[in-house]
Amino acid sequence: MEENTFTVIITKEEDMFIAECPEVGTVSQGYSIDEAVANIKEATKLYLEEFPLKLKNRPIITFFDTEKIHLRTLRGFSP
């Protein structure tokens, strides 16, 4: 299986953390950052099983405000 690296943007909304994967377009949430990351991994995996992408390691985000969001990279992700 091909492994891909995806960006996950985490934002805080009231009592939830919202996780977004901009390369794929998936969004999920959780009550903690770890829960949001686990949920976005699952959502992205399920999405890619149904709609495979052909990515060529191209950057999507080139600028971000580090005071408003946290970034995590999912490494070794295999759908």
Break the fold down into its secondary structure elements and pairings.
Blueprint: E1 4-13, E2 16-21, E3 26-30, H1 33-50, E4 70-77
Antiparallel strand pairs: 1-2, 1-4, 2-3
In which range does the helix fraction lie?
10-25%
The number of distinct helices, counting runs of at least 4 residues, comes to 1
Largest sheet: 4 strands, antiparallel
Proportion of strand residues? 35-45%
Structure classification: alpha+beta
CATH topology: Double Stranded RNA Binding Domain
Beta-strand segment tally? 4
* Adjacency order of strands in the biggest sheet: 3-2-1-4
Q: State the CATH class.
A: Alpha Beta
* Parts with pLDDT < 50 across at least 5 consecutive residues: 60-68
Looking at how many chains there are and whether they match, the oligomeric state comes to: single chain
* Rg value: 12 Å
Per CATH, the architecture is 2-Layer Sandwich
Helix-strand pattern, N to C? EEEHE
Provide a descriptive summary of the structure in words.
The protein is of the alpha+beta class. It has one domain (4-77): Double Stranded RNA Binding Domain (2-Layer Sandwich), CATH 3.30.160. It has one helix spanning 33-50, and strands at 4-13, 16-21, 26-30, 70-77. Strands 3-2-1-4 form a four-stranded antiparallel β-sheet, covered by helices on one side. Strand 2 and strand 3 (26-30) form a beta hairpin. The longest helix is centred in the middle third of the chain and has 18 residues, at 33-50. The chain starts with a strand and ends with a strand.
